[in-house]
Amino acid sequence: MDPSGFYVQYGLWIMFGAVLLQQLGAPIPVFPLLILAGARAFEHPLHGIATLVLCVLASAIGNYVWFLAGRRYGQRVLKAVCKLSLSPDSCVRQTENTFERYGVRTVVVARFVPGLGMVAPPLAGALGLGSATFLLYNGTGSALWAVSGLALGLAFHTQVEWLLGALTNLGNRAAGTVAVIVVLYAVYRWWNRWRLRRALNAARISVAELDAMMSRGDEPLVLDVRSRIERKLDGRGIPGATTIDLDDVERALARVPRDRDVIVYCACPNEATAARVAMQLRKSGIFRVRPLAGGIDAWESAGLKLEVRAAER
User: Fold this and answer.
1) Are residues 156 and 52 in the same domain?
2) Interatomic CA distance for residues 259 and 274, integer angstroms
3) Contact of 110 with 117, CB cutoff 8 Å
């Protein structure tokens, strides 16, 4: 089938559906479609305008669903969203850090940062952002994102047309090549995640082991390395734990004693943040350090005692 002719006939419907599904969590690469739409807009300006409107509308619908879910379910939905990402070990942390620094403006730039766009809407809802404010900033970010893709298509319309012609000549081989590239990329990301998890499994301490240490009076130093936003959304903590902010790790590590067992916990998938801090401790000469398997959620699931702290600002 001629890709160019197929796009002319169904392009706008495809664009709306692809953007909507992507915002709902499907790993669909939409930006190439925007570039294609921009190339077509060179001769048909109304096509570019219609694409822009549909992108903003589809983004608003998809993101608002996650925004409402975040408002209702809080941090639970953030963890669910991260499971849809190829980088679940970092997406929540990255978004929380950006929100801490830039506030609601994060919603505007979220579409331009891999992983950020999926987590920003539910996080905004969990933090109590107003619906009108969210839709305004989300619409602004979606429009800027769509315009950037359309602008690239306009600027390189000649090259896009040449590429479409080449794909038409290749026929089914082109589709097969693209599919292989996508699969290889997904396998590569999965392999990296698997290697990280294997390394963590060898170094972690279980909640039962930590509870036994505390019960014996071993007095391990327990470090809570969740972000300020995480601690604001979830005031639970392991009794006696010391909080460390990742933007102040170096100064905090200087106060960690060398002669005690150090246990690091977080609330992120695969204990990635805890593992990262543990590695920093080891590099600084503190070797009796381990991340807590399952983090704060595993501690609670085991029925162990929690302390509830005052909300942080």
Assistant:
1) yes
2) 20
3) yes
Nearest one of 179, 159, 171 to 2, comparing CA atoms: 171
Sign of CA dihedral 135, 137, 138, 142: positive
120 closest CA partner among 78, 58, 57, 178: 78
For the chain, the farthest-separated pair of C-alpha atoms sits apart, in whole angstroms, at 76
Phi-psi bin for 13: left (phi > 0), alpha (psi -120 to 50), beta?
alpha
- How many domains, the chain? 2
Domain-located, residue 179: no
Query: pTM for this structure?
Result: 0.62
Q: Measuring CA to CA, which residue among 252, 248, 249, 261 is closest to residue 287? A: 261
Per-residue pLDDT, averaged over 226-241, amounts to 83
By DSSP bridging, strand 307-308 and strand 236-237 are: antiparallel
Tokens 């302390």, residue located: 307
Confidence (pLDDT) at 113: 74
Question: Is 120 exposed, middle or buried (CB count within 10 Å of its CB: 0-12, 13-18, 19+)?
Answer: buried
Q: Are residues 7 and 154 in the same domain?
A: yes
